[in-house]
Amino acid sequence: MEKAETGRAGGNSFSPGSGLPVQGGASGEGAGGSGIVRPERRFQDDDRDFSLRPRKLGEFLGQDSMKKNLSVFIAAARERNESLDHLFLIGPPGLGKTTLAQVVANELGTDMTMTSAPALDKPKDLVGILTKLKEKDVFFIDEIHRLKPVIEEMLYIAMEDYELDWVIGQGPGARTLRIAIPRFTLVGATTKAGNVASPLVSRFGISCRFSFYGQADMEAIVRRSAGILRVSIDGEAASLLAVSSRGTPRVANRLLRRMRDFAQVEKAPSITHAVVKEGLRRLEIDSLGLEKHDREILAVIINRFNGGPVGAETLAISVGEAVDTLEDYYEPYLIQSGLLQRTPRGRVASSLAYKHLQSGRTPGGEASLF
Ligand SMILES: Nc1ncnc2c1ncn2[C@@H]1O[C@H](COP(=O)(O)OP(=O)(O)O)[C@@H](O)[C@H]1O
Ligand SMILES: [Mg+2]
């Protein structure tokens, strides 16, 4: 059985029922009742530096076409003095969904209230938040694919009619009250768009799909963060760090902090190419930005399942991960890098994966002679 959980947003928290939604800050985190660590929580340490979070669209680097459209929609809503249409953010962890939600609120000049779907346990949790919003406020729900059906249905009416159905009492004496709520903007974020019910998806007027950041954007992000952390980094070093951060700003910021540690302990005047090269070697991060565990996943597919196809559940068990973590955190980048393919019959290692691991095997065959 799924246990109720409390949304926790690093430094801020929202307890269901306390009626105290919290504004601003980091991403909502939550752990399933099964004791499985959710990707968002596992990597929460990476978000410790709130100072690194862009606050305005201008500081939010990359994702250019998405940003261009958004700035038009925001400007238009402001001009009409209306709330922005509901916004749906889709993408793997660490690409900036929570950050963008806060940026949108800042650009709109409104406040943001944030929570995570698993924290919305009872209808009163949702009612408590929605009735406290102000006109045009942003209400951010992280992991929106994990909403309970009863909450989801209340949300439909809230999104469309800005009203709530609130049931008072029980049994034959129960009455339904319709409560008007302020016109707000819902921002829903998910790593799994496919798991969000289509009636909910269709109520979002704007959808943004995040893609992994390219080399130039990653370099710019590394440089910006280094500036904020007041550590100097050489051009070559920034470039190497950018390649090794799997197209993910959160990873870049984490690696940058580790490189700062290495440079400091080694008394290097700045983060140099040599510091990064040695640092990455010590962290076991390879030329494609893969960590040890990424390589283990590929190796298991190649060696134990003869290259695949292997089902997600079987693979997750074999590598000791939760299916969610495998699917949300590890797979998107392996797929993006062309190392892994998702097929209807399961996961398959590509020939590039064989080459990258310098496996003695060949795709579809047994160990080769060479
Ligand atoms: N476009 C961006 N430009 C600069 N930094 C970013 C950008 N997107 C994300 N970041 C950094 O990466 C970190 C993780 O972003 P976050 O919004 O928490 O990701 P998500 O919610 O998608 O998991 C943030 O703390 C922020 O510092
Ligand atoms: Mg987040």
Outline the structure in words.
- The protein has 14 helices and 13 strands.
- The protein is an alpha/beta fold and 370 residues long.
- The protein has 3 domains: 7-209, P-loop containing nucleotide triphosphate hydrolases (Rossmann fold), CATH 3.40.50.300; 215-282, Helicase, Ruva Protein, domain 3, CATH 1.10.8; 292-357, Winged helix-like DNA-binding domain superfamily/Winged helix DNA-binding domain (Arc Repressor Mutant, subunit A, Orthogonal Bundle), CATH 1.10.10.10.
- A 6-stranded mixed beta sheet has the order 3-6-7-10-5-11, covered by helices on one side.
- It is globular and about 70 Å long.
Give the structure's gist in a few sentences.
The protein has helices at residues 39-42, 64-80, 97-108, 123-130, 149-161, 198-201, 215-229, 235-243, 249-265, 273-282, 292-304, 312-319, 323-336, 351-357, and strands at 7-9, 12-14, 22-23, 28-29, 87-90, 112-116, 138-142, 163-168, 175-180, 185-190, 206-209, 340-343, 346-349. With 370 residues, the protein is of the alpha/beta class. A six-stranded mixed β-sheet has the order 3-6-7-10-5-11, covered by helices on one side. A three-stranded antiparallel β-sheet has the order 2-1-4, with no helix packed on it. Strands 8-9 form a two-stranded antiparallel sheet.
What is bound: which ligands?
adenosine-5'-diphosphate, magnesium ion
| Order of neighbouring strands in the sheet with most strands | 3-6-7-10-5-11
Provide the gyration radius in Å.
22 Å
CATH topology of the largest domain: Rossmann fold
Mean pLDDT: 87
Largest sheet, in brief, is:
6 strands, mixed
